[in-house]
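General statements about sequence and structure are easier to judge against a single worked case. No coordinates are needed to read the tokens, only the vocabulary itself. The sequence in question and its structure tokens are set out directly beneath this paragraph.
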Amino acid sequence: MSLEGKIALVAGATRGAGRGIAVELGAAGATVYVTGRTTRSQRSEYDRPETIEETAELVTAAGGEGIAVQVDHLVSGEVAALVARIARDHDRLDILVNDIWGGEKLFEWEKPVWEHDLDNGLRLLDLGVRTHLITAHHALPLMIRRPGGLLVEMTDGTADYNAANYRNNPFYDLAKTSVNRMGWAHAKDLEKHGATSVSLTPGWLRSEMMLEAFGVTEETWRDATQKVPHFAISETPRFVGRAVVALACDPERARWNGQSLSSGGLAQVYGFTDVDRSRPDAWRYLVEVQDLGKPADATGYR
């Protein structure tokens, strides 16, 4: 699968799924603009070591061209300047991945709205919803200059799963279900311009933060299953990256327009694997194993 000559923007690519997606787009030959707030000289409120420069270097090492641009996607002017730069340098945008998040340290597990810190909850909605709308507002006019563009709205949970399950607290629940709906809503407008919009969720992601929280590395991640057995269904950020590449390379991707998709579900269609050559299908596993209280057993699910 080749994306040579294609221009992509991964908004929110400092770490996690965004980094995995950017690297896989690079491996397919794309030029990838990677944005975020943390650089080698300045950290965001996350106060984590990963930087957009590192992501850009990984994109280039994978075979593409990585371009790091520090952007706060809540600041409309910064996003407008980013898009103007892409238009000036390439006069096109083929792929937009809206992966901006930043709410892990803000939400409180299983707290009703009256117990949850209000400022943190509203900040979470700003980071998880408003950023996506601001970015789409500025970037989509460039994407629709040519038919065939792809918008991927990244979230947590498929539309079906989120509709049937309460996601931790009202703020987190609203943020993640809103992005599912956003992918569907943009599809109504983009199909008139020959473009495709989807929402996409990874499964249980072995992000930098998750590995650190469990006290393991990517090489030793299975050790965490001794304390958290269902972690056996987890996946690397590269897996959902390969899902985005498969969509971008599919000449018939319009068949997915408006749909809520998952990395595991798309792997069954396109045949790609995670870096260990497995195909973890986390959301099916959650429904058929974890949520039913069955013992952890990923057999048949990866």
In short: The chain has one domain: 7-208+237-279. The first helix runs from residue 16 to 27. The mean pLDDT is 97. Strands lie at 7-11, 31-36, 65-70, 95-98, 150-154, 196-201, 260-262.
